[in-house]
Amino acid sequence: MNPFELHIPTRIYFGQEKKESFFDQLTEYGSNVLLVTGGGSVKRLGFLDSVIKSLEDRKIQVVLFEGIESNPHAQTIDKAAALGKKEKIDFVLAFGGGSVMDASKAIAGLIHDNENEIWPFVLGEPKYKKMKGALPVAAIPTTAATASEVTAHAVISNPEVKGKSPVSYPFMKPSACWLNPAYHTTLPLTTTRDGASDIISHVIENYLLGGNDSPLADRYSEGVMETVIQTLPQIEEDPENEDLRGRMMWASTLALNGMQVSGRKPAPFTLHNLEHALSGYNHDLAHGRGLATLYPAYLRWLWEKDRVRDRLALLGSRLFGIEHDDVNEASIAFISVFEIWLQENGLYQRLSDVGVPPEAFGDVADYAIKTYGGGKELSAAGSLPREEIIKIFEMTENQSAEFEGKETLHV
Ligand code: NZQ
Ligand code: ZN
Fold it and tell me: Final residue of a domain: which of 134, 151, 184?
């Protein structure tokens, strides 16, 4: 095993029954909260009033900020931070998906540091790593996708520069989160699928590129992936089933809390680098959908370059029972079966289907390299230069959205 440091400071409350305990804990953070929500779903669905009541019952004064976009805009975050400063809030409560949670962390940092703009603090900009602290953040996630409720990251989008880039600090990890599966039964099918794709990405990235040194990290990651692969089709059949929603939600939280990489070699987050450049180009593209679009092309590209075939084969054996003496056959078989799963679950399409046309590929590759590759190139078990990034993007254009049902998938 390789050396690592792990600190998971978030107190996690799971289940409807834990509501009172969660809100009781919030009283430790102060008496004036900035409650941050997204584009209106938690209000429309009738969830917001009871959260406000639980806060007010505890004499916590609520300042509400509504309107965080999917792929949260830097400019909206700046506005929310200005409101929080004016109202002298003590802590931030995020009630929404990854976009709301990420925005809340950034808002908490800006208020703590008495700063006005978040964009200069993101990776690739002058104040990167210069933030000093953040107000306490708590979160009630309403998507199963990002694990932002336990991570140090906040991914910020900026339509003015067609960019998307993270800020990341240990002090941004939420202090508490409440995972209530009931809030997930309303998630649209597409958002559910996008989230499942994101959860898989958080474990598969390092599984493939991080080497063989931590068998337990392998088993942990396989458990997360197997849960998602089995649970997504079940949710599609029974979307209001809280037990299934809870399973997916817990898989989401576990996928990016640090355990998944413990003991493996550090490795780049290549798919994420590429995807953030894609949804930076098109802010209407959901992160998980962008990742799903990249999977088949990226995995086939790795295979064609004869990279990590042993890891692909191991995953095929563990997830789908694919056994083959020849690692080359076993690894390509895994890719084919995983593609079928994507097809069967409505996650298989071209980049041009999701608003990134071929004429944009060069610009998107340039942004990925500038922001995530130090201006030189990306890496994925070896070099991933501009022309190869474009090749991966082009390979997605062979992915027909029309699934022909050519094989049956047995999980
Ligand atoms: O905006 P509202 O009205 O809330 O609607 C949202 C939004 O339209 C809707 N929604 C959320 N909960 C719902 C619901 N609709 C019905 N019922 C509910 N219970 O779902 C849509 C998508 O929400 P969003 O928050 O944008 O999705 P997600 O959770 O996938 O978050 C994506 C953002 O997180 C970043 C992504 O890059 C992207 O910006 N990530 C953050 C990470 C982190 N902090 O560690 C890691 C990830 O890799 C990722 O990069
Ligand atoms: Zn992700």
Answer: 184
